[in-house]
């Protein structure tokens, strides 16, 4: 049997389910379409944003969304994607502008007495510069008088060097951020960064063709830009709710919201504009309590409480609320309704999940049973385009009870390949499983096909028929998904089953990021690369005498690389002591190709056996940025 490698059309069951969505939700309600276009000034005439010759963003990549929704896309997601793909400069209210559709996130520009405050300068320098240029083309060559990061995610600060030049930084242009910003901006990617990047490639579907059988967006925005990422550390921290700052004549009152959508985040009220910036705490979708790329689980209980606090503090004086994704909401009553529904959304998911887990239901069972209140179903902005009711419910379960559902049958299961081999054998062999799975496919039970054929693929990844059938099933599940990131995950899975592992776009570890890591984080990052079994018998210690800081001693013992600052009983007797500056130590820890030469060049003093350092570094392994996901 020859294997097809091309996508299938939507199967009748999926096409019918997608068509039924049109009758289920209020597509006749066009307020979002009006709001997404409201205040439109202009967009860029140059539609490609480039880094040299490489395209990092294409404003027209989603032009296909202007057509009617095809049967290979959930109409609700199509609608959301079309709204999010709108691009250009928009006036939010007098003196506040947004550039939208130039990246995954929005850049907001507030006009001051002398220049502008830039809030959240996108992911890449190139897209941020293009966004600012568009603003200036229509509002004049105003200088950037301050930058503000609403939170510690890269789509809100990575493009900062596109709006701040070296001379601005040297001149002390203020960079404002919530307390804890820098630590969280870098720490999320230090330890599990490789795995997160690999999974993010699935989540945003970077390798998928854009189009009706491919990537149509990510719900929160279309996708991530791929330009130059940087980080300029904040110079002014917001440390308390109610703190007020005036920059370039712009008065701001802050609300700190740590532990919501990000560990360091804030909302901003502009009394002079009756405008409220909700950062990423209230956007036009149900957000993630646990992002599919992987992260530490967020707290919907706190999130809901901070939304109540925002309404209490600012709701009575707000005429427009905007965020760093999607479009604003205008009118005091609508703003309060919007924030209240968002608040209820997170509160309901939290409370009902906990109620059901206390009745003994497990994560998968709660996800299946959870029904949202009709008013929240009717509101478009509560839909799971980015987060989903299903995976957020499991996240709440995980937050309280962890991975184990309490059933001892699940306590010590065989891992995927070992289980798959046994399943397939018990089920009568691969051919028998595939014959029955094809019947399930014909019956439209794609969820089951994906679940069961996964065993055949994991038992024998070279089984081409199994891979093809699994790809077909994942693809149909993608076509039916309302959630943009689910669609991307399904379609990426199908793509890699057909074409093999496509890898991860190059990582984003910029010099700014590495400079922002603390020494403690750097030592920790080395420790997680130690080949444990390979270094069980090693016992060695290196002492770093910093000319400009406290000494640090690393010890490799029992397969664990620990580090201790200063002196005391935990510090091992060093095999070698190296005296040098912190900058040179950082270069060694970051993997300089020839550490001995580097130390010589740096004028380091070595006391003891330098070969021990080489031995220590020899115990480190490299992470795999291209690990398999849909195959063993
Ligand atoms: Zn964001």
Report on this model:
The chain has 632 residues and is of the alpha+beta class. The protein is built from 22 helices and 21 strands. Helix 13 (416-426) crosses helix 15 (446-459) and helix 14 runs antiparallel to helix 15 (446-459). The mean pLDDT is 96. It binds zinc ion. Zinc ion is lined by residues 105, 153, 155-156, 280, 324-325. Zinc ion (ZN) binds next to loops.
Entry keywords:
single chain; 632 residues; alpha+beta; 22 helices
Termini separation comes to 24 Å
Secondary structure class reads alpha+beta
Q: What is the global morphology? A: globular
How would you state the average pLDDT, rounded? Answer: 96
- For the secondary structure, the number of strands is 21
Which ranges are low-confidence, i.e. pLDDT below 50, for 5 or more consecutive residues? Answer: none
Rg for CA atoms: 26 Å
User: So how many helices?
Assistant: 22
Widest sheet: strand ordering: 1-4-5-6-7-8-9-10
List the bound ligands.
zinc ion
Proportion of residues in extended strands: 15-25%
Please give the share of residues in helix.
25-40%
Largest sheet: 8 strands, mixed
